[in-house]
Amino acid sequence: MAKNEYEFGQARMQQGRGGGRGRMAIAEKPHDMIGTLRKLLAYFRKFLPAVIIAFSCTLISVVLTIFAPNMLSRITNLIEAGMKSGNMDLGRIFRTAGWILGFYLFSALLTFVEHQMMVLTSNRINWTLREDISHKLNRIPLSRFDSASFGDVLSRVTNDIDSVGMSLRMSANEIVSATATFLGCGIMMLITNVWLALVSMVFAFAGFFIMNVIIKKSQPYFRARSATLGEMNGHIEEIYAGHLIVKAYNGEADASKEFNRINQLLYEANWKSQFISGIMRPLMTLLSNLGYVTVCVMGAIMVLNGKITYGVIIAFVLYVRMFTMPLSMVAQAMTSLQTAVAGAERIFNFLEEPEMENEDTKIKTLEDVKGHISFEHVKFGYDKDHPIIHDFSYEVMPGQKVAIVGPTGAGKTTLVNLLMRFYEVDDGCIKIDGISTRDMTREAVHDQFCMVLQDTWLFEGTVFENVAYGRPDVSLDEVVAACRAVGMNRFIRSLPQGYDTVLSDATNLSAGQRQLLTIARAMIDDAKFLILDEATSSVDTRTEQLVQNAMDKLTEGRTSFTIAHRLSTIRNADVILVMKDGDIVETGSHDELLEKGGFYAELWNSQFVNAEAI
Amino acid sequence: MISIFKRLNAHEWMLICISVALVVAQVITDLRIPGYMSTITRLIETEGSTMQEILNTGAMMLIMAVLSMLVMFCSGFVSSRLSAYYSRDLRDKIFHKVQSFSPEEIDRFSTASLITRSTNDVAQIQNFVAGGFTMIVNMPITVGIALSKMAGGHWQWTVLTAGCVIIVLSVVIFVILYAHPRFRRMQVLTDNLNAVTRENMTGIRVIRAYNAADYQMDKFTDRNDTLTKNQLQAQRAMTVMQPTMRFTQNILTIGIYCIGAWIISKTSSMEALNTFSTMVVFSNYASRVLFSIQSLNFIFNQLPRVSVCANRVNEVLDTDVHVKNGSEMRGKGGMRGVVEFRNVAFRYPDSEADVIHNISFTANRGETVAFIGATGSGKTSLVNLIPRFYDVTEGQVLVDGRDVKDYDLKVLHNKIGYTPQRAILFTGTVYSNVNYGENELRYTEEEAFEEVKKAVEIAQAKDFVEEKEDGYFTFISRGGTNVSGGQKQRISIARSVFRKPEIYIFDDTFGALDYKTDRTLRGALKKKTAGVTTLIVAQRIGTIRDADQIIVLDEGEIVGHGTHRELLENCSVYREIAYTQMSEEELANG
Fold it and tell me: Total structural domains in chain A?
């Protein structure tokens, strides 16, 4: 289920990205622009030289390109003069042309260098951000993982990184180059001819103004589109995921009715938003054409009146184009920068999540552990105001088998969480051989336990890697021995690559086989304490026998904690802790508890009482 | 890719034709404008031209500019309608196709993939129709018309233009061949990286318990490196594009001017003016050609992606649904709630072995028949044959004396109240989830509400539903995430009770409930809905021990069939299961 939801999330993300193509999507605003930018800059610091080089390249290349139209105008004038006089100064023309080409070549090279620098920088930063996030995961307390929204946060953050990298690379530079072009171009136009310059500027600003109006007007349409799209995707996900029920209950008509309603809305929202953003292009083209026509006509009249040379027109035709673009470019770059910063903000929020305390000064290794555990006045609550374990004290002797039982949701896993220090006790302490687990590092605590969980977590990797998990010093022989002990050796040998077979979703391991592998993993871990958390509940009853045998082997010589749904599997435990609503209500052996006739007895009996006899 | 066009209807074809016509008109008007520039140049350079003549030409230019805008406007309108219309239709077709699928087809694609196909893939196609389509039409037309306008120019210019086109083309081809595959690979690499992150999330307890954070980190770094390297290669290759394009563009303009100067210097003045005025226009056209060629980059970037999407959509639409609807509207005279399997065998498509084999039994009205066996023994596959989620490979499944294949599916489904192992709730309220779908019962609103209340009570959900502030109208969020697993299951059981079926199918439904609720719920069902045949798939002996018939499955075959007591005596598999769950004395006393 959880996995499915994650995949749904993915589909949603892709949807979001596929939508706007950055042209005119909804701009997302960060909460703290300055603060986030400052943090981002910190990441840039390492690459400062590259960034400086990139920006200088941009500036120089802009200046070079700004001069080019002017020189082209000079060539045109030379040609015109030559044509009129019949004496073409080819030498001078070619020389000027050579200069311009030189300018352009140099400018092209600089642009190339600049792009290379930015690509390198942004990718390195992306890499670092990804590593930081992955590192961060190891330092976040487990309680955070158990909160529902966490997976969502993480998948968003992962997606954010790509967009942040891309917009920074593009936008930052675009803003620099566009601003420079805008200013330089404006100055050059004013110098060349004030009147033509002013006319061109009017068109450029008009275009900019119109564009802003359209963007503003289109926002509601885009918002409506993404809302409807969200609704549509939600409906599709739900109906597909519940397909069996829709079919079995003849729910198709209802589902279709709802689908058609949303689809029609989406159609409206789609074409409207598409159209309104499509208006922009013709309008901008019209303006640019108007500018072009005006410059041509006005220029031509001015030429006729002898006010300017023909070359000025040529130069202006180019300047107008250069001048119109930066304004819209800056506007777009700002929008995408804003979105990027909003993404970056989420990334930094994640990186600033509270971490587990630093434990450098604590006991790192325990020598010669006996296997004695004592709970001393343990108090704990997931929410500090609502303690669920009030004052629990109990002493477990080396080699004892402890079973924890209770109905679903009674908080059996809470005890495991505390033992493993996944969560910290609020008061009191848990001691291993008399040393409080708080005084040792978490790693040291973990080293004392081997664990088999209900969720048979195997990762993408070979059988060997999965069994010898996290312990590079384990030899193949040891792994084989462990697998033989749980009766998996023959099966593994029969796999195409034996112990080197990569386990993935495609590998067909049954739930039981997966569980046996995790038991083998626990054997390799070979710690003094053992935790079995509902280890057999996902396995059918026949395979359970195999698993049970393997687990019995595992419990030998270890102090063990077993959580179980099936009461029969734990009746031979030395002590049973009965939990209810997060509290330990009874302790004792099976027989003692039955005799007591309390909650345990009730639980025990209920599994054998039949549905009311007819 | 092409085949997706087969799905266009007449209206859409018409829109496409209009759209193409508009693009042609727009390119033509757009390309007229520089031509007037040539006229103006000529006027400037000719002695005695009047201001009026220039203004006239200017006016023509303006008209063309406005015309071009209007045409573009219309073209935008048509293409936005077209893309929205097309995507609506496509989405509609896919959705209804998927609705008609049986689980067999759903399994083949996987739910997640079907969702992506119906949402993301359609959106991609829509974007392409909206943007890429006009671009694809625009490019050849612009190039064609511009070239025809350039045809009158000097051959030296043409040679230069050709040279520049080759440069641009080779850069574009380089990018297409080198960078595009890497961009495409990026998705896979990103998925790989995310897989590790997901692994870190799902396995966090194991990772912490085994102190394996460093191990996972190494794995992450490894994939991060690969991803970054690939991305660097792709993006660095792309950096060649823009500078080269701009530079070539400039070479072209300046080259044309220089060549022009050289030609003019060698010709008579009349000829020279001609050359001079065409020169400016020629360079304008030439740069448009270069620009259009550049859009190949975009097209070749989009096309493979869209055609992947199109293929994925087509796969869905081309799938034949195996389960065909029958026509029978009722069972054989007087029979109700009778389920019979006759030598049934079933195998999943593309599978080599039967999941269940040689299954025969009859469940009579009001009986409880339970199925037990190891995971993979075929229990779920067996009950899935009754509502025809799948069709038998051999033999027959009969409901009320008729082969299920003969029934109209709706009629068949109305006979059945099916509850799966994993409870599925829909967005809505408790009420809308219980009173779900269509059935033969024609209640008034008040009656329906009373019936919902009854069903909820039988399903042991009354207490927690009525405790909630909004009672039966408590909002259920998507996927039922705001109620607990056990509550979800009970609401979904209430749903099957509400429709008053002839046959209940509980596919391991009770596993999510604690023993106590399990027991009272089954008790209430027996009492309040007597006469309904009940088929139960279960893991717990306790759930099924009082069933009228227990069928023990092992590797798809019936290895035991009888009551609890009988099976304990003569079925070793059953005994084994029972022993793992209860002690011998309890079995004996039971």
Answer: 2
Determine contact: A223 vs chain B, CB below 8 A.
Answer: no
**Would you say A402 and A577 are in contact if contact means Cβ atoms under 8 Å apart?**
yes
H-run or E-run covering B3: none
Q: Where are the domains of chain B?
A: 2-172+238-318, 335-415+502-512+535-590, 421-500
Instruction: For residue B119, give the nearest of A15, A243, A275 by CB distance.
Output: A15
- CB distance A249–B374 less than 8 Å? no
Which of B81, B253, B410 is the best substitution to test chain A (most A C-beta atoms within 10 A)?
Answer: B253
Is it the case that residue A603 has pLDDT exceeding 80?
A: no
Distance CA B36, CA B277 (A): 10
Q: In this predicted model, what pLDDT tens digit does every residue of A214-248 receive, in sequence order?
A: 878 888 888 888 889 888 988 998 899 888 888 88
Give the Cα-Cα-Cα angle A81, A83, A85 (nearest 5 degrees).
65
Closest chain B CA to residue A278: B76
Q: Is pLDDT above 50 for B112? A: yes
Is A461 strand, coil or helix?
A: strand
Fold of B421-500: Rossmann fold (3.40.50)
Write the pLDDT tens digit of every residue in A102-143: 988 999 999 899 989 988 988 998 999 999 988 888 888 888
Q: Is the pTM of this model over 0.80?
A: no
Percent of chain B exceeding pLDDT 90 equals 23
Query: What is B2-172+238-318's CATH topology?
Result: ABC transporter transmembrane region fold (1.20.1560)
When CB atoms are compared, the residue of B77, B224, B246 closest to A131 is B224
Query: What DSSP designation does A585 have?
Result: E
Nearest CA in chain B to A243: B99
Q: Is A105 within a domain?
A: no
Instruction: Report chain A residues whose CB lies below 8 A from the CB of B242.
Output: 111, 115
Alpha helices in A24-89 (DSSP H): 33-45, 48-85
Q: For B83-92, what is the mean pLDDT? A: 91
- Asked whether the domain spanning B421-500 has the same topology as the one spanning B335-415+502-512+535-590, the reply is yes
Which residue among B72, B217, B436 places its CB closest to the CB of A281?
Answer: B72
Co-location of A293 and A379 in the same domain:
no
Contact A591, A432 (CB under 8 A): no
Residue B501 has pLDDT above 50, yes or no: yes
Q: What are A254-301's pLDDT values in tens digits?
A: 899 999 999 999 999 988 888 887 787 788 778 877 887 888 888 888
Q: What is the CATH number of the domain that holds A399?
A: 3.40.50.300
Contact B96 A238 (CB under 8 A): no
Which of B103, B114, B211 lies nearest to residue A446, judging by beta carbons?
A: B211
Q: State the ipTM, two decimals.
A: 0.83
Look up the domain containing A285 and give its range: 194-307
Q: Which of the residues A136, A276, A286 would you substitute to probe the B interface, choosing the one with the greatest number of B C-beta atoms within 10 Å?
A: A286
Sign of CA dihedral A17, A22, A24, A28: positive
From B522's Cα to the closest Cα of chain A, the distance in A is: 6
Residue A39 placed within a domain: no
Asked whether the beta carbons of B521 and A606 are under 8 A apart, the reply is no
Task: Give the Cα separation of B430 and B428 in Å (integer).
Answer: 7
Which are the contacts of A312, defined by CB distance < 8 A and separation ≥ 6? Answer: A73, A192, A193, A196, A299, A302, A303
Judge if A235 and A379 occupy the same domain: no
CATH superfamily of B335-415+502-512+535-590: P-loop containing nucleotide triphosphate hydrolases (3.40.50.300)
Residues A393, A299 within the same domain: no
* Type of residue at A591: D
Boundary-marking domain end, from A292, A307, A322: A307
Per-window interface: B 300-329 vs A, CB < 8 A: none
Listed residue (B228, B505, B253) closest to B381, CA to CA:
B505
d(CA B79, CA B217): 48
